């Protein structure tokens, strides 16, 4: 059926831009603290184990809120839900900047993530509810560009702000955009009315099960690699709690008339496969944003500004690709564009599977171009295929589920990357070590040369020489482990292409 809707009035377009601004803030704040953890740790007198929780708490709380957004918009209306979410997010940001202890900061970051989580799916849903199909490509290009650019520039922007001002401004910078976004939606976005009678139908037991399912799951994925997974009693307990809560949540959701999250939308084959692609996209969107700075920081010892200069290429590629991909998605079958996007992301990742310990800007330039183009095409078309044919009444609910799957993909990707890096690093170390046996002439000569260089500067020249060689071996083992991850991520994306055969051609 052809979409005969007209373009929304200018007032609603202003409201939509305001909603996009709110979504940008919520996504940006996931990663903006990543490069400033040392300064924040010193500012609130935290231990290394405690400081990681300012990211973990935000992610856990946000993941719980995202699927609830559909229910809240039905109860409070889209406008009121967004404004409450945005203003609360802004106030929580001020609280984070004023925090004096790590406990206060973790608590306020959890509030910030929870209340801000609703802005992301609402912005997605507004794109489908307001605009006709003929311009949907351009709309989704803008949303996709925001969704991909925000996590990419977060660490760089955070490092720059902390270096020139202080870590407090990582949170204070949200005040003016938060007020603008709230005012824009409040005054210009009235598309539905609240139904306060639904409060009596809210399934609070289902809400509890959902929180106990997603919260511990995110905790396990975040903390598992560092705690050696199920060798930790805490990780094991949280995993069991998540599993049991998941069983109770799915059972209740599928058997009551007014569930907290309506899972019946997964009966739509396109939505089910589209959200699956959202999960896979999350692996690359968050995994590659995490993997590249990790390589450049650990192996090359780059600072945050140098890392930002390298990673800027991905954002630039997405920015330039967005208008072209948007136009193409209006004219071509979305399945074709998504296929090309998957092939580009997979190929771009494999292009980085032969890095050396000296790899830098030049070695990452073209792979980032290829990946950036492909990733934007994937995000635009996956969301459009998944939600573009849904009834208006289900769009908010579908947007929440789509974003949950994407964030879960990112969480699973980060946990898998940390775990596999450790395993492959140990593997390559054990493979290289036999080759540097002191019985080999070339090794003996290398040790002798280093001894001559450090004589007088080290109390034990031979021990210093052996230490330098061990450091080189460790670096090479790390590089090989990173190459394995890039290769396997690329293969994963290429293997996802055949799923396209099971999708129906999207109509209007």
From TrEMBL:
<feature type="transmembrane region" description="Helical">
    <location>
        <begin position="202"/>
        <end position="221"/>
    </location>
</feature>
<keyword id="KW-0812">Transmembrane</keyword>
<dbReference type="InterPro" id="IPR004638">
    <property type="entry name" value="EmrB-like"/>
</dbReference>
<feature type="transmembrane region" description="Helical">
    <location>
        <begin position="336"/>
        <end position="359"/>
    </location>
</feature>
<feature type="transmembrane region" description="Helical">
    <location>
        <begin position="365"/>
        <end position="387"/>
    </location>
</feature>
<feature type="transmembrane region" description="Helical">
    <location>
        <begin position="80"/>
        <end position="100"/>
    </location>
</feature>
<dbReference type="InterPro" id="IPR011701">
    <property type="entry name" value="MFS"/>
</dbReference>
<keyword id="KW-0813">Transport</keyword>
<feature type="transmembrane region" description="Helical">
    <location>
        <begin position="106"/>
        <end position="126"/>
    </location>
</feature>
<dbReference type="Pfam" id="PF07690">
    <property type="entry name" value="MFS_1"/>
</dbReference>
<dbReference type="InterPro" id="IPR036259">
    <property type="entry name" value="MFS_trans_sf"/>
</dbReference>
<feature type="transmembrane region" description="Helical">
    <location>
        <begin position="271"/>
        <end position="292"/>
    </location>
</feature>
<comment type="similarity">
    <text>Belongs to the major facilitator superfamily. EmrB family.</text>
</comment>
<dbReference type="InterPro" id="IPR020846">
    <property type="entry name" value="MFS_dom"/>
</dbReference>
<feature type="transmembrane region" description="Helical">
    <location>
        <begin position="485"/>
        <end position="503"/>
    </location>
</feature>
<feature type="transmembrane region" description="Helical">
    <location>
        <begin position="233"/>
        <end position="250"/>
    </location>
</feature>
<feature type="transmembrane region" description="Helical">
    <location>
        <begin position="304"/>
        <end position="324"/>
    </location>
</feature>
<feature type="domain" description="Major facilitator superfamily (MFS) profile">
    <location>
        <begin position="15"/>
        <end position="508"/>
    </location>
</feature>
<feature type="transmembrane region" description="Helical">
    <location>
        <begin position="53"/>
        <end position="73"/>
    </location>
</feature>
<keyword id="KW-1133">Transmembrane helix</keyword>
<protein>
    <submittedName>
        <fullName>DHA2 family efflux MFS transporter permease subunit</fullName>
    </submittedName>
</protein>
<keyword id="KW-1003">Cell membrane</keyword>
<feature type="transmembrane region" description="Helical">
    <location>
        <begin position="167"/>
        <end position="190"/>
    </location>
</feature>
<keyword id="KW-0472">Membrane</keyword>
<feature type="transmembrane region" description="Helical">
    <location>
        <begin position="138"/>
        <end position="161"/>
    </location>
</feature>
<feature type="transmembrane region" description="Helical">
    <location>
        <begin position="14"/>
        <end position="33"/>
    </location>
</feature>
